Every structure is written in structure tokens, then in C-alpha cells.
Amino acid sequence: MKKPAILVACAVFPEVLLQLQQHFEVTSNQEDVAWTPAELIAQLQGKQGAFTTGSQRIDAELLAACPALKICANMAVGYNNFDLPAMTAAGVKATNTPDVLTETTADFGFALLMATARRMAESEHFLRAGLWQRWRYDMFAGADVHGSTLGILGMGRIGQGIARRGAHGFGMKVIYHNRSRLDAAAESACGATYVSKADLLKQADHLILVLPYSPEAHHSIGAPELAQMKPTATLVNLARGGIVDDAALAQALKNRVITAAGLDVYEGEPAVHPALLTVPNVVLTPHIASATLPTRMAMAQLAADNLVGFLLHGKALTPLN
Ligand code: GLV
Questions:
Q1: Whose CA is nearest to atom 5 of ligand 1?
Q2: What DSSP letter does each residue of 157-171 carry, written as one string?
Q3: pTM beyond 0.85
Q4: Does the active-site annotation cover 125?
């Protein structure tokens, strides 16, 4: 029987590609060329499956032009690159990679929080520039993390992982806001207390964003929200570009409306708002929160298993629709 044809639209672990080649006729993009939407459509002709990342937008126009497509398996837990209603309407299965990245991403939330609050990037740049001459009592004095109040906006799996680390590892008071409140058992397991968004902004010493992107979540943190935060506060965005108004954040950092920020995601990434590159009190990382080799391998494997499960056995492991 002829193997189904799939497109692997991004570079992936060679061993995962080999596995896929056992089951499918694979066209792959191991050179990781950033295809335009028209090039992606051209590459998808005749393909029943696509292995994607957040860099490939799957929308109604693409779906109409790719009638053979049956499934897109995203190697990411976030799926704002998918127009899910359009995929459902077109009868195209969508899958993501939940769970396998939760703990790694929660670790990174803390890494970015610590780096931001303790001014690690700024002080390292100072040292590399040869500016360090002597120890000084207030040199790069930052904010304490232990014992402070940690605010979490978005309380899914990753938010709960961050809450557990804060409450049980760092002795923090953990408060959160989410569209829906956790049940009492889940709140007590991660040591977190539900508050309104206004109280979250007002009370947090450190605020971490881990909510999924949706049009309603666009600019959840902009100038009005930043103005409600403590001037000593730090903000960490692990969620998605667009949840924060990056221009407003750069202005707030410059004017010390808040003290510092740590960002792993950006509006319009891989472009970064130029004003963010000019303020010293921000730690910038290139969307690497899930980037450990074991976790990236688990994500790639789950995306591959979704393609095999759905196209060969009619059942995706982690379907979104
Ligand atoms: C990364 O941002 C992901 O959604 O997995």
C-alpha cells in the first residue's frame, strides 16, 4: 500500500525524521527555510499530514488551497498559529504537545524570574564590558524572590508547576488569576490563592504570565495594567507575544513604572521591539522555555506519534478538535 505523504515543515531531530520515513512519504525542511505562506501552500500540495511549529500559520486560506490535508501536528503546546475553528470546519485534525513540557517550562519560568529579579543579565554585560573595578554594597542589588508574593496570570499546567516551585521551594505567597478558578484540591496542591486580576496586579512582587494567547488575551498587560503594579515589581512573560504590549512595557521599564522584566516571547517574534533592546532592566531570551534536549525530543516524538496515530490508526493522541 502506498504510504501517506506528509510535510515536516521545520527542522527536526534526525531520529524522529527517520521514524516518520518508515510510515510516510516525507518531504522535510531540514534546512529550516522560513517559507512564505504561498511557499508553505505549495509544499503542502498532496500532503495528508503536516508536522508544524508555531512558525507555520494554518488558516482558512491555506486549508482551502490544500484539500488533501487531514492533520496538522504542532510541536508546541501553544497553537495560536492554528485557526482552530477553520481547521474544524475543514475537517482537519489539529494536535499539540501538552504535558511533556510542563516541568521544563516551569523550571524556565523560575530561571527567568531569578535572572530578572537578581539582575543577572545586566551584571554579566557589565562584567564582560570590563567595567567591574571593586565590590560595592549596592552593586546590582535586586529584589528577593524567596518569601515574596508571586503572582501568576493563567493557571494551567505550567502555571501550577510554577506555583508549586514558588510555594514549596521558595516559601512564596502565591496568588493567581485565571478565567476559571481551580478546585480546592488543586489550589492546595500548588499552594495558590485565587484573586481578581486587579488584586493580582496590585499585590504581586513578581508577576509571571502563562496564559494561552487568544484575541481576548491580546495586550492583557499594557500601560494601564503596568501602572497598577508595584514600582518594585518584576514581570515575566513566558506565554506568547501579544499578551504584553511590548511598546508600553519598554516605556514602563524606561520610566521605572515597574523595576524589571524577563521576556521569552515577543509580539511579532523573531523581531523584538527595538525599544526593548535599549533598556537595561529587561532579560531577553529567544523563546526557549521548553528547550532542553529531553523535552524537545519528547515534544517532537509526541507530534510524530500524533501523525502516525491519526493517519495510520485513525486516532490522535492529543487532539485539539
Ligand atoms: C512553546 O511556546 C510552546 O507552545 O510549546
A1: 76
A2: HHHHHHHHIIIIIS-
A3: yes
A4: no
